[in-house]
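Box 3.1 A note on notation
Throughout this textbook, protein chains are presented in two layers. The first layer is the amino acid sequence; the second is a token string describing backbone geometry. Keep the layers aligned when reading.
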Amino acid sequence: MASAGTTPFYGREHELRRLQELAGKKTASLVIIKGRRRIGKSRLATELARRLPGYGALSFQGLPPTAHLTAGQEREDFAQQINRQLGIPAPRADDWNTLLWSLADRTRTGRHLLVLDEINWLGSKDPTFLGKLKNAWDAEFSQNPHLILILSGSLSGWIERNILHHTGFLGRVSLDFTLPELPLATCNLFWGKHRDRITPHEKLRLLSVTGGVPRYLEEMNPTLSADVNIQRMADATKSIARSWRRWSTALWTYRNYTRHSASARPGRSANTARIWCRRAFCRATTPGTSRRRMKASTANCA
């Protein structure tokens, strides 16, 4: 499993505790972890492997879907991952059965943590993939009582439709949960030794754009201001750039409205500023939110 890097692991203690409890079972465990991209699914699996002494950890990831990606290319990449991680010749990539059985043969005994990351990518090009994975679980993987198989992915709807609510996996899943964004108290830990010197206002400026997404917080330099951090992340992440532009517009509008609140109708100006700012903030932090929903959510804004 890939190294977690040098950034300390923060939070997720509840999820880790539930996952660690699976090691005490007398049967194999099938786990589903859902969550948006960059929310920390892979990092959680890596931290779990570190906290499970005696377990061998293997992690495989699907290829990001493109217009030209084929099912054969997906299988070939999976075969090469088996070759690299297990140090064996790459199995034939003509069928998922061959790949999954080859993996099951190497995890038949002993303590193993096996992760299939972005399962929705692995199964997107081949309609037979999930059926063959289910058969491999029933006939092979589940026969090892010390095996934990984690299927993780960022398309929650696809996972619920094709795995959790599908008859093929009925009664087979030991644990499933969706990773939320980190709470504010945990986000505060990412500032490290500088967290007591940074004002709450600066922290909230950054968090209003990044949210509690661990990967974005790991990119932060705690010695720099929120504006500089956001701009640097925006240079590499278009979605954050769009959010930052919207949030900056909201702040500018709010400041200009409140600056002239001593006009003939100050109450109305200040209230309008708050409503406009909140709507712009909603657009910045919740992409895809319709104007009707934003208007409804701010109708009673004071």
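Residues 260-266, 294-302 have pLDDT under 50 and may be disordered. The domain at 13-178 is CATH 3.40.50.300 (Rossmann fold).
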